[in-house]
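Summary for the lay section of the report: proteins are chains of building blocks that fold into shapes. Here we show the chain for MTMRA protein and then a coded description of the shape we predicted for it.
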Amino acid sequence: SPSLPEYFVVPSSLADQDLKLYSYSFIGRRMPLWSWNHPNGSALVRMANIKDVLQQRRIDQRICNAITRSHPLRSDVYKSDLDKCLPNIQEIQAAHTKLKQLCVNEPFEETEEKWLSSLENTRWLEYIR
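The coded shape description reads as follows.
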């Protein structure tokens, strides 16, 4: 996938041939990407949708099992579809652009009340929260 970094972490129990095979099933060939690890063993893994609905359950289960086996505390995987509750990249970029315009064009000292409501209207603080 051209959008993934050159090197990234995957569960060691997934064989290279499985990774190559599974990569074709993901939209944009975006394999699951281990993004963050907490000292208590929690991990954040980002994964694109699987194209083939018939294969989705099998591939999803295989990857979740591999993540569980690689997890230091061997806890179950909790999955959440963040597309439903998080802004998309275009919304984040638009909010950032509005924030930059606000910071450059609106002097804070002169219009504090207006500035704060304008800041809220950018939605930037909501998104980074």
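Put simply, here is one thing we learned. The chain has five helices and two strands.
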